[in-house]
């Protein structure tokens, strides 16, 4: 899942961004409305976590433009004002969900995941291929009944490959959907992560390299 966090409070922005990355999401950050609009113009986000009270371009206007852009990004609006009227106004602007501050981080994660499911084609609650199973919501993956100890990026790569259902997934697609904007597009991080993931999955090989194509799960 690709997420943009738009929050002008730098410390809170950092906390949310780091926390969502630990949940195996690809997360970019913006500190004001202008930066947010620039980023949504060049990157497709599944979910935008949007503070309503932003400097520069107000969060209300950012929300309007995201919705009008038609990219399908879901908007979770955050605000310190938590009255019913505020929530109604936020949803009336086109936001998909509304969370008043302060909030419990576990609830934020649950709402982001729920919106992410709405922004993409429906997937089964548990992804599987052969003896491989992965539960995105519980963040549990196993092979032949053996639970796998995966780092967040390894888990996200495996989830994306399983969701592709045998389709070849390029390294560029994995970079776009699993990593954030700070990642060097010429880096070998995808190859390195695939190598670590293969080692943890064990034998027989589950991830196959397709020459001049990318990677896929299933029979070569």
Automatic annotation (TrEMBL):
Keywords in alphabetical order: DNA-binding, Phosphoprotein
Presence of the UniProt keyword DNA-binding in the record: yes
Residues annotated to bind DNA: 124-219
SMART domains in the record: REC, Trans_reg_C
The keyword DNA-binding is annotated on this UniProt entry: yes
Ranges of residues in domain Response regulatory: 2-116
One Pfam family hit: Trans_reg_C
InterPro entries linked to this entry: CheY-like_superfamily, OmpR/PhoB-type_DNA-bd, Sig_transdc_resp-reg_receiver, WalR-like, WH-like_DNA-bd_sf
Positions of the OmpR/PhoB-type domain: 124-219
Gene3D superfamilies registered for this protein in UniProt: 3.40.50.2300, 6.10.250.690, Winged helix-like DNA-binding domain superfamily/Winged helix DNA-binding domain (1.10.10.10)
PANTHER family: REGULATOR OF RPOS, TRANSCRIPTIONAL REGULATORY PROTEIN CUTR
Name the record gives this protein: Response regulator transcription factor
Classification of source organism: Bacteria, Bacillati, Actinomycetota, Actinomycetes, Micromonosporales
